[in-house]
Amino acid sequence: MALDGILLNRIVPQIAEHLPLRIQKIWNISATELLFQVHGTYGKQQLLISTHSVYNRLLLSDRSYPTPAEPGNFVMVLRKYLEGGVIESLQQADLDRWCTLTITRHNNLGDRETLHLYVELMGKYANVILVGTDGRIIDALKRIPPFENARRTIHPGAQFVPVPPQDKKNPFTCEIVDPEVSLTRQFGGFSPFLSKEVEYRMAHGQSFSSIMQEIASSDQLYVYESDGEPQFHCIPLTHLGRCRQYGIFEGFDVLYYHREEKERIRQMNGDVFRFVRKELKHQENKLPRLMKELDMAMDCDQYRIYGDLLYTYGIQDTKGMTSIVLKSYEDDSDITVPLDPKLDGPRNAAKHYQKYGKLKKGQMYMQEQIEICNREITYFTGILEQLEQADFDTTTEIVDELVRLGYIEEKRRKNNRKSRKKNTKAIPHVTTVTLPNGVSISYGRNNLQNDEITWHLAKKNEIWMHAKDYHGSHVVIHTEHPDEDTIRIAAMTAAWFSKGRMSSSVPVNWCPVKNLKKIPGAKPGMVQLGSYRTIYIDPDEDTLVSNGIPIL
User: Fold this and answer.
1) CB burial class (10 A; 0-12, 13-18, 19+) of residue 129?
2) pTM value?
3) Which is nearest to 138 in space by CA: 105, 166, 109, 165?
């Protein structure tokens, strides 16, 4: 769900309160996201502009974003013209989905000049355009040449043409509503989704003017979680049901930070998702072939019988023959023995014995290959589940693990300058949280973090947990005698950071760390349990959040 003009109207004033802001640094954190590090009355802040077709937005964010070492071409242009400049004003065009950042700076001659950065948040047409003092385009994030759009060319050197106004009524000043015409056609800034909410409220007795007053005074974001894309706006969504309430900037971070993080991971760490899925599919396709070959190998005795029959009956001249029918010496039934027409009887017999010996040895080899294939399927299934819940640092560690195990080649990853240093081994990012009762728990989000927790961070008498029959987090309670509430929170954490997070009564195994053993030759994150106990838990998001567990 993309934001509409009404919601942008509530975002712009909250950013404007922080102006003026001096631009210190500019990054492209993905192909559709720009991050401005700015400084103003409130100290250092981050201004995020996203032109994603679905997640487009403009906000001040306090989240941590990975920044590439090598900027894109458009960011190089922005750095040249805007770094050191001051954002003086931010204005929305009526209630349209675009606004203008007015930026002043001193050019190379020391003269003061004013530039404009147009931020257009119109779904798949979202764009960021830098315009000079002469009204001509300096550059744009998404260039649109004349042969694609002759009426509105977005290209360096072209005269900037603003998005044409919609010429609709302002809902904040007009109280007359035509019931025969949809709100989206009458008023500027209205999306079909907001129209549903307003029409629902009006049908239940609330006046249009009171609804608009509620919108005008709102600085919150109300989010309705659904099976598909979440729905949101700046007033409670009464036509849908119970909503979560956030500050506008916080709400957008909750909604989209981790969704767009997947895009950043693909662009900055390589498409590790695609690699893992491809490898998993390869192993899953390979397993049936191995099983079929094992079945063939298990039928090797028939070739020994063929050789025995040829020798028993003293068959000599078989050249030119493709088969021969002989009587079984066990039950006197007919057995058709295949022959190579180029060979005589003894050589055909020797060939069958040779094939018998090869298949007999192959049984052990095929069983080993099937076991290896099953381990690979288990491993890559676990990696894929970890990636689905991973943040950027966790994914980087997963890539490092795949490099160490030889699945992918080491490459110069632009996002991670530390990876360029030789002979360095970074400590995995382990999450440790202190619960309200003062007890600390640690958990991992990938195999390297799980190993770090289990074998280096935990003490032998502390309690270890893991969701049974699921790939997921190792959780350690940093005390020898936890109470029942602590055990339940830790078990819930183990269940949440596994594929069982949406299930009920998830079994979680737990035991002292001293009851664990390493499996020789096993992949990272694999352990062998001695004696253990099992608790069944229902993962609950609200309970985890209330106890300080970051669930995103």
Assistant:
1) buried
2) 0.66
3) 105
